[in-house]
């Protein structure tokens, strides 16, 4: 029986359908897990229900304040009298002993008023820079001015300006009069250090040193003027110019310290001998980084930030004199030699002339 082309195509289609691919079997197994439903079918997909959307209330929501907060009260009556410092800021010298802070009362003065106060540290510390205070001021009827006394501690150590504070903390009227603290209820007190540590400068801006046949150590004098309170210090070091470190001088650096009351110090610098007979060389000695309130003379070389001394090394005069003497002797001998040679030539010429005369005769 001969099969038509259509019959052959049908048989092939049936055979292919019998041998499914692995993918087909995987899809079938997955459908079995889900009850034979087609995965991904739009009709079977779970859609979110509108019932799961939280409705937004259109009712206004009251915003509560922090726990314990209260609604602002209506402003009370104006105080009949006000107490405050005469100023918000005070400046006093460290050596003043005791600062007196004036507190004034204005308004109705008919009642007795009591005001509490206490100090507070700033950079200045109680027990180190001032004595802590805490107490009460009593304004009797018709009194309008009181003072708070604060002892200031003086020392010989230089310090930057420091401040502390005194507060008026509360006010009480004996007869129930309405009173209040003014805007200047806090005073700032600045302690100005009057211990002058002084100003440093070299005794000379230019120091000339004569070289010798041996290495020599020179002492460069530094003066402290305008005060000598406290222990102060600065850095120093040498710096090359036309002179060379290690060949003309020994490099030095360190810290120069002035104790309390000391007004002068010296810095040792070594000059190296190398037989210099002509010309001169120079280098610098520099002070910088002044500490504890110390400063440098702004009118001298280096200005306010540093102080500079230029050290000039002059030729060795002894060696130069010896060399000059040797050179002079060499010139004399050369002149004598030249003169001797000239005389010899003249004598030789005379001898030749005399010999000719004798032969002719």
TrEMBL record:
SMART domains, A to Z: Calx_beta
GO biological process, one term: metal ion transport
Domain of life: Eukaryota
One Gene Ontology cellular component annotation held by this UniProt entry: membrane
Domain Calx-beta: 70-169, 187-288
Signal sequence region: none
Entry annotated with the keyword Ribosomal protein: no
UniProt KW keywords: Calcium, Ion transport, Repeat, Signal, Transport
PANTHER family: NA_CA-EXCHANGE PROTEIN, ISOFORM G (PTHR11878:SF65), SODIUM/CALCIUM EXCHANGER (PTHR11878)
Official protein name in the record: Calx-beta domain-containing protein
Organism of derivation: Cladocopium goreaui
């Amino acid at each position: 029986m001969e099969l038509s082309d259509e019959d052959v195509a049908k048989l092939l289609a049936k055979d292919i359908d019998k041998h499914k691919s692995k993918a087909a079997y995987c899809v079938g197994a997955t459908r079995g897990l889900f009850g034979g439903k087609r995965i991904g079918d739009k009709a079977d997909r779970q859609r979110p229900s509108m019932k799961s959307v939280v409705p937004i209330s259109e009712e206004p929501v009251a915003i509560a304040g922090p726990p314990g907060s209260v609604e602002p009260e209506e402003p009370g009556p104006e105080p009949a009298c006000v107490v405050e410092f005469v100023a918000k800021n005070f400046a006093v010298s460290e050596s003043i002993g005791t600062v007196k802070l004036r507190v004034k009362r204005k308004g109705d003065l008919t009642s007795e008023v009591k005001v509490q106060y206490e100090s507070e540290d700033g950079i200045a510390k109680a027990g180190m820079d001032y004595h802590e205070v805490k107490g009460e001021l009593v304004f009797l009827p018709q009194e309008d001015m009181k003072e708070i006394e604060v002892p200031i501690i003086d020392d010989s150590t230089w310090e930057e300006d420091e401040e502390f504070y005194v507060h008026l903390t509360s006010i009480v009227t004996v007869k129930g009069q309405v009173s209040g603290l003014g805007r200047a209820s806090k005073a700032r007190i600045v302690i100005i250090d009057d211990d002058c540590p002084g100003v440093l400068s070299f005794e000379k801006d230019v120091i000339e040193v004569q070289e010798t046949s041996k290495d020599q150590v020179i002492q460069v004098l530094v003066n402290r003027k305008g005060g000598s309170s406290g222990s102060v210090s600065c850095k120093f070091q040498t710096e090359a110019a036309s002179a060379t470190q290690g060949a003309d001088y020994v490099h030095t650096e360190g810290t120069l310290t002035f104790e309390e009351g000391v007004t002068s110090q010296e810095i040792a610098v070594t000059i190296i001998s190398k037989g210099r007979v002509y010309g001169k060389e120079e280098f610098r000695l520099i002070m910088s980084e002044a500490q504890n309130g110390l400063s440098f003379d702004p009118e001298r070389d280096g200005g306010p930030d540093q102080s500079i001394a230029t050290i000039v090394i002059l030729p060795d005069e002894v060696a130069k004199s010896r060399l000059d003497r040797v050179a002079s002797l060499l010139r004399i001998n050369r002149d004598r030699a030249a003169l001797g040679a000239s005389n010899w030539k003249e004598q030789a010429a005379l001898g030749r002339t005399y010999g000719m005369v004798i032969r002719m005769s």
